[in-house]
Amino acid sequence: MPLIDSSLFVLLFWAVAAYLIGSVPFGMVLTRAMNLGDLRSIGSGNIGATNVLRTGSKKAAALTLILDGGKGAVAVLLARLFAGEDAAQIAALAAMLGHCYPVWLGFKGGKGVATFLGVLLALAWPVGLACCLAWLIAMAVTRTSSIGGLASAAASTFFMIFLGYGSALFLGILLTLLVFWRHRENIKRIRAGTEPKIGAKKD
Predict the structure, then answer these.
(1) Which of these, 76, 159, 187, 196, is most buried using a 10 Å CB contact count?
(2) What does the domain layout of the chain look like in residue ranges?
(3) Is 96 in a helix, a strand, or coil?
(4) What letter does residue 15 receive in the DSSP assignment?
(5) How far apart, in whole angstroms, are the C-alpha atoms of residue 198 and residue 189?
(6) What is each CA distance from 45 to 85, 91, 193, in whole angstroms?
(7) Quick check: 178 and 112 in contact, CB under 8 A?
(8) What is the mean pLDDT of residues 188-196?
(9) How many beta carbons lie within 10 A of that of residue 27, not counting itself?
(10) Which of 94, 107, 124 minimizes the C-alpha distance to 12?
(11) Is residue 30 scored above 50 in pLDDT?
(12) What EC number is given for this enzyme (predicted)?
């Protein structure tokens, strides 16, 4: 049986643990391990899967996508198992913050889309699957990574309400705002019509 404890200390513990899990920069780890160069000097310099793809390695990009999503899911599932639903929601936000602002990289991390989808799949898998579908459709139609991420984030609030996960609605709004904040420069380029397509040199 899971040990359910929502005390402040336990919640703080899982917030810190989830942040550290989320802050693991898998994109940089994989590109260095596979001798693909310094990810910070490639393309946009971002640590996410889209920029890893610019190294020319689809394998590294796919692994980065899976691992960035997986770390968010793992953080949520562990927190839920040992401390309950409140801790799981706190872990979701902390893992996202860890990815976007990792202590190991001077708080300069990724845009958070893969981790966002991972935490949603762990928190409420129907919502997570719906957001993944929205992400895939938007990217297929526009061939623009940022639009895919923004579309999935924007749709998440609707999916939470429609699919009956209102208890996570406030968290969903916070995560959506974080994704939009991390994409603020992309949004400017989208509005200007200068946002690169998938595979271009800059994100």
Answers:
(1) 76
(2) 8-192
(3) helix
(4) H
(5) 14
(6) 35, 27, 21
(7) yes
(8) 90
(9) 29
(10) 94
(11) yes
(12) 2.3.1.275
pLDDT digits over 102-148, tens only? 998 989 999 999 999 999 999 999 999 999 999 999 999 999 989 99
Write 159-162 long-range contacts (CB < 8 A, 24+).
159/126, 159/127, 159/130, 159/131, 160/124, 160/127
DSSP 44: T
> CA-to-CA distance for 156 and 141, rounded, in angstroms?
19
Residue 152, CA atoms < 13 Å, CB-side half-sphere? 33
Tell me the C-alpha distance between 165 and 19, whole Å.
24
How far is Cα 162 from Cα 165, in angstroms, rounded to an integer? 8
